[in-house]
Amino acid sequence: MRLRFIVVLAGAFVVAGQWETLRNHWDRWTRGFVQGGASSRVAPPNIEYFCPMDPVVVSMQPGKCDICNMALVRRKIGDMAPLPSGVLARMQLSPHRVQLAGIQTAPVDYRPTAREVALTGVVRDDGLVRCRVPERDRPFVVDGLAADVTPDDGSKQPGLKGEVSALEIDSRDARASALIRLEESGRALPPATRVFATVRRPVAELEPFRSLPSDPTPRAKGELLAVYLCPQHPEVLATERGRCPVDRNNNLQRRALLDDQRVRWWCPMHPAVTADHAGESCRDCGGMKLIPRIVTYRPPGRVLTVPESAVVDTGTRTVVFVEQAPGVFDGVEVDVGPRCGDVYPVASGLEPGQRVAIRGAFLLDAETRLNPGLAASYFGAGRSTRDEAAGPPGGEAIVPDEGTCPVTGRPLGSMGEPVSITIEGRTVRLCCKGCEARLRESPDRYLPPPRARNDRRPALPRSAGE
């Protein structure tokens, strides 16, 4: 018994005295493993981990993002990672380059906006003002609009108030003319007087802004306050935690709803089928359950606007650079309405509160065009269409439109869990069960023709609308 006590004390002294040596041996024996098992091995020298939601977070070891607490994604150092859905280009600039380029950002928000139209006309004998309306401005001049009328006589008299009473179309040349009735009878203008008239049409009365949801109802008890989105596939939305149904790699990230946002359920195949609660189904799709979506309500009489200097019009699309992180700018396509002064109304593509580049947006766009490698060198960009058509080095072409439904063209996972079916010996993934009947009825319409084994030419994809 006494000898055992002496041995224990001796062992304790040895461990305390040789602690550093023992720890070094332990670290060497257990190198390559961290807490969490074999799935959390330290990355090899050519592997790094990054956060798709916050690309500035890069680590040499697996773990979670310090910003969004999302699991980091593994990739090769210098490898090109695909950009999130809807992002055309991504640029990362150092603080010095941001300051050197003079890039400034500002948040987008709702504001009352009107399209201003300047007209010229003549006072008729009956006191009405007849103004010629150019073809491009005809949608913005309607009955009942207020008008400011100023005589074109060089005098500095204050303008007269009026109202557009009618819009006439000449049957001979199809030209439009607006008749303006002056409200101030005490200051009648003599006939044949030339005048300038200005009318303003609120953008909230124009399409598609008029059809956008407006004035949200108060939140009901138990209504969702947050949803879960995939950082790589923003079209994927769920009401519970889980993994992205598109690639099963990314964990869905929680996102709180704004005060003017609500969760509603709908059928993408039949947009008229909607519901305010979960569990409803679409009869036209054979009982497919409706999927959730975020509905953003605009304040009455206001629309989402973006400064004119932030919009880059390439001729084929309209691009705005959104600041996702300090020094990180994503080019996204937006749908804008007619220019109103120094702003553009935004129909889709942006959300209130996002910060956009209002100075230097043209420089960002020019740099991504002149040197696309700068946009892809660190964060990466998707492969070009030429690379996709060429296929892997082995000569086998990549299946066209992989990741999308061949029937609707929508991304897989955007309508819930994808459905896999076997048709003509090929396995096809669909966005929902409602597409199965249409595909089986006419598979040649939606699927590319099968190729022979020795045919290495890429199959031509078929349009979902053909």
Overview of the structural elements:
By secondary structure, the protein is of the alpha+beta class. It contains eight helices and 29 strands. The strands form nine sheets. The chain has a six-stranded antiparallel barrel with strand order 7-8-11-10-9-12. It has a four-stranded antiparallel sheet with strand order 4-24-23-22. Strands 6-21-26-25 form a four-stranded antiparallel sheet, with no helix packed on it. The longest helix has 16 residues, at 2-17. The chain starts with a helix and ends in a 20-residue tail after the last helix.
Concise description?
With 466 residues, this protein is an alpha+beta fold. 14% of the residues lie in helices and 32% in strands. The protein has eight helices and 29 strands.
